[in-house]
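Note to self: keep these together.
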Amino acid sequence: MNKTTQRIIILFSVLAVIGLFAYFLKDILIPYIRMEIANDLDGAKELLASKGIFGFLTVVLVEALQMVVVFIPAEFIQISSGMSYPFYIAILLCDLGVCLGATIIYVLVRLFRFSSDAYAKSEEKINRLVASSKKERSTVLLMYFLFIMPIIPFGAICYFGSGRKVRYGRYLLTVATGVIPSIVTSNLMGAATKYFIGHDLPLPLLVLIIVVLAAVLFAVLFIFLDKVYFKENDGTPDSVLYALFFRLVRFLRGRKQRLHIDDALIKGVEPPYLLLCNHQSFYDFYYLRQLTGNTNFAIVSNRHYVTMPGLKKFAKKAGFIPKKLFCTDFATPVGIRKMIRGGYAVAIFPEGRLSITGRNYPIVERSAAFYKKLGVDIVIANISGAYFANPKWRKKFYKSDIYVQPKRIIRADEAAAMSEEELTRVLDEDLRYDASGEELNTYPQKDKAEGLENVLYRCADCGALYTTRGVGNDFICSACGKVHRFDEHYRFEDDPYTIGEYYERIKALELTELSGFRLETEVNAVAFSEKGKYRTRSKGVCVLTEKEFSYSSDEVSFTVPTDDLSALPFSCDQEFETYHDGKLYYFYPVENRRQVVRWALLADLLREIKNGAEKED
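Structure:
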């Protein structure tokens, strides 16, 4: 069948759906609802009786033709029929319509070699879901699986099944039974809506019932996928929970940025491989996932988050690899090797933490040696435009153009031939970035500086501590009165021109005072156990000097030499943290929580001095 004929069939199907549905709304549904509101039950029954076979036929035909068209949602007619007819009749009519539509599609595909452009748009999703199972499945089982996936239209599934070697009788039985959960849910929504209209009950209660009904269907879907279809994928990136996690993130953030993906370089690379990327924002893992297309990768994640009660089982089943930040953790290399042996790519952010200034941190020490030992290709990727969209110090999200692309591929044999120092240098160069120098976006917002004092805690002009404040687009020091204003590219209008340059000036000020310094503060501490099962609280004092970091309270006391202190990760205006004796300690200053960034910076400066001394030796 040629393309013109196919398009004519689709066009007439669309027009028929629109016309029939309009008739159903005008002559049946709207008058019926009005009678329900007026409590005219006899009139409502007479209306349906007067339409008789024409009303039934309309539901069946609309349901059937929308399947041929594919892109018209079936829920419209299913909910409407649930509002207009008794529950059992509505289910029967919708199921008959689905069977008729499936038969039309079967004939079009088998006899006339019909191929729908609308189906082609869903075909990639279907192939991706089918490919994500390690076991061969029969077409019938695949169709049952697809019917309970809320993202695939019924018509697309029927096009898929018609193109496979399945007898018509078995095909139709699969369709007739596979669609029942979705039809029942939609009809129940329609019936609930009719009941609420007729009894004048609160709209929030109706919404709650609809949400509960949808949740029940989703629960059935999850149990089926998790326990039957994808059971063998537990603990890997091919698990149902992994897909659910990224679908949820896409729902929350998918429309809040404009992603530009350049995946040309990575298309010839097959897993297993390492995927290394810079770390501009919290959602970098999501942006990176869009680069790899159908390839699911395991993510090395902050151990504290993926072992929290309620999340531990989820993260484990989804294949996340936990990592203690800036702490020797033998379980992490084991987890990475396990995923590599399983044939998966593994994503790592070698900086180990989010950028706070839009410039990169150095890669975590001794990482290159481990990457070499894995013996796989190394893909170095770059994310641009994400820092100002959602920086660590600002809660508000700005819509931005975000660019994701691979920068370099280091083949396994190339990596093996490099020295550790050479590979470290290459990684450091390729992962280097400065968000202020990108100018990929303009930011017309009037609150760009708000919260920035939680990073730029010291005035770069007069050196005063904790006197800076972001007000609108102005960054102001209350001690000297100096004002730095952001332009539309998120750059200051005078020197220092960027957040990174301002931060470097603060570092220079701190370096001049580093000799013999002592930083001390009272804190409320929360300690999390090794496996995150419990936590203890205490109140004590933290001290940082050139020689050591210490914490002491009535319950616990410990000291960490600064030579062993790789970093003090922190959350802006909240806490700084470190591991000791297998426990993760969060320290919340009792006074002036802005100081947490200073603790982190001084720890970084001590580490830089130590690394510089080691290189000289």
